[in-house]
Amino acid sequence: MQNTEIKTTCSYCGVGCGIIVKNDSKNGVTVTGDKDHPVNRGMLCSKGMNLHYVVNDTSDRILYPEMRWSKSHPKERVSWDTALDRASAVFSSIIKKHGPDSVGFYISGQCLTEEYYLVNKLVKGFLKTNNIDTNSRLCMSSAVAGYKKTFGEDSVPIAYADIELADTFLITGANPAFCHPILFRRIEQHKEKNPKIKIIVVDPRRTDSAIAADLHLQILPGTDIVLYHAIGRRLIEKGYVDSDFVRNHTENYQAYKEMVMGSSYEKASKLCGVSVSDIHLAADIIGKAKGFISMWAMGLNQSAIGVDKNTALLNLSLITGQVGKPGSGPFSLTGQPNAMGGREVGGMANLLAVHKELSNPEHRKEVASFWGVDSISEKPGLTATEMFDALESGKMKAIWIICTNPMVSLPDARRVEKALANAKFVVVQDISHNADTAKFADLLLPAAGWLEKEGTMTNSERRISYLPKGINAPGEALSDVEILLNFAKKMKFSGFNFNNTEAIYKEYCLMTKGTNIDVSYLNYSRLKNEGTFQWPVPDYGHPGTPRLFADKKFFTPSQKAIFNIPTSIENTSELPSEKYPFILTTGRIRDQWHTMTKTGKVSRLMTHTPSPVLEINPIDAYKTKIKNGDIVVVSSKNGEVRVKAKVTDTIKEGVLFLPMHWGKQLDNDLNRTNNLTNTIVDPISKEPDFKYTIVAVKKY
Ligand code: SF4
């Protein structure tokens, strides 16, 4: 495929920027921002504008299937036929001997919607287990549960277009300047034109987002709910409640009011480490807003109380009636490009396609009937961390990992290594030999990457894009759809007679008919000819839906939004002790993506932060006799890392920060932050508590 030009979508974060890709024999693939795209209007961040380096450099690519006949044999090149014969034989024999729940699939928010749909149908409908989860469990599952509890369904109410209509932003537990750069650029541009616009940032670190803010609340980790309740109290006391909205469109306000009015500003200030005057100021800014948008990401979601943090924040939009109006609403910032698409097709262990619930017998029946199978198992599937627990204990025997690198990204990474080593059979389906998890594969399957296959994705604002195939995959790599269809054929499953990817999308769209995410009138042809659409798109002429709940009717049985009362206001993570006196919080840096299998091979992306660095406050550095640039050992109950220290007052006293990206290098795992992280998860969302691990630090 030479001298082509196509329009597609960036493969990194959930912002979902439009990209024009050119491919010619002289330059290979080159990328530019799509000026006509409604999301980025031609802008790209450092990651997006360097995507062509990732595509053009195929030196790390897995080119053909590799297999080992036993754990003591080295992997050898095999044909696709041999590879998938073995996969089907091993999976069939394990299921026969130990039952369907002895196998599991761990997939990714980078999978395209068709891939996500197909693998969920295969596993839940035909392998008869719900052991299929995604790395979105580490990212958005607390937000999903929060939306369900408040609005009745997993539903992001607003659009990026609301940014330019808002006058107040509360960015909490997120650093969009680094992690969602183009979205943040839109906020900055809006403020440049309208200087009176207010930005409040809540973060234990003075990030680039916080530097751009009018008010930075440098909160102590884990105290978000206390802060939101104090803000809620002030909003009520100062008469900022939208009484009409609360009376007519919400439930449980009285209980909420009683709870927050029982709180004390002084106590909140002490717990959060934020002054009473700043709490009041934040509430007054929010209360006076004509258009109030809250934005959040992993700082809320990756927590032992992540769901409660989400609902406590959503309550602030309810009190002020700032939902369903132009320029207002809560907005969860998705980390991955298609985490939202994955949720639509039921890509988690507790979900079914089209937002149906596994726990609902009617929903199970409907999905089973649509797929032409007898039933869907009622047993909840194992979530991401639970699957690796089950591999370690031997309850689960085989795992199929698609497009994700758990050996770096899951908490307590050394335990993940043990689990993979203990598994009877590990299939890794990926594009790169650089994925640390590939070393544990008994069967390594070469997958096509971005630009090398077609499909659809949904970004953070429910916007569905079609991604065309632009170039051929190297070697014998196949698209994930082709691999899964070939496996289904080997397993002799009916229901997989799809001639192409479009046919899979068609089946999914049909399934959405009559639901709240109805896209039954959407198809490849409309997406190719008319561009992107925000769901729902429930009829032929429908232009898509930028904003949900404009009619103030929510997806709950009463059609009212619900004020939720948290089970726990204070953090339930393990608190600092004499042995482990610091709180470690982890996150992303500007130019890296996940576990660096793609961005790590682009030299210009390595210059911003070439190696992991521990941020430590000057007071803590003084107490521990650590100087800027010292090599330090950070240790927790689970393991240790050895990195350089950066002494900086941008981080709150008592808190340390490490980036999450680095994995094992040269058989040394001391760069890997997730050696340290704890294994606590939120009791509802099962999302890990990455933002709060107690650690010790000392000079090496
Ligand atoms: Fe890609 Fe996100 Fe950057 Fe846009 S903001 S170019 S989607 S990484």
Automatic annotation (TrEMBL):
Needed cofactors, names only, are: FAD; Mo-bis(molybdopterin guanine dinucleotide); [4Fe-4S] cluster
Say yes or no: keyword Transport present: no
Q: Give the UniProt keywords, A-Z.
A: 4Fe-4S, FAD, Flavoprotein, Iron, Iron-sulfur, Metal-binding, Molybdenum, Nitrate assimilation, Oxidoreductase
Q: What is its EC number?
A: 1.7.7.2
Q: Which residues form the 4Fe-4S Mo/W bis-MGD-type domain?
A: 3-59
**GO MF term set:** ferredoxin-nitrate reductase activity
Q: Does the keyword Acyltransferase apply?
A: no
> Family per UniProt?
Belongs to the prokaryotic molybdopterin-containing oxidoreductase family. NasA/NapA/NarB subfamily.
Q: From the Swiss-Prot or TrEMBL record, give the protein name.
A: Ferredoxin-nitrate reductase
Shown stretch of the complete protein: 1 to 700 of 1171
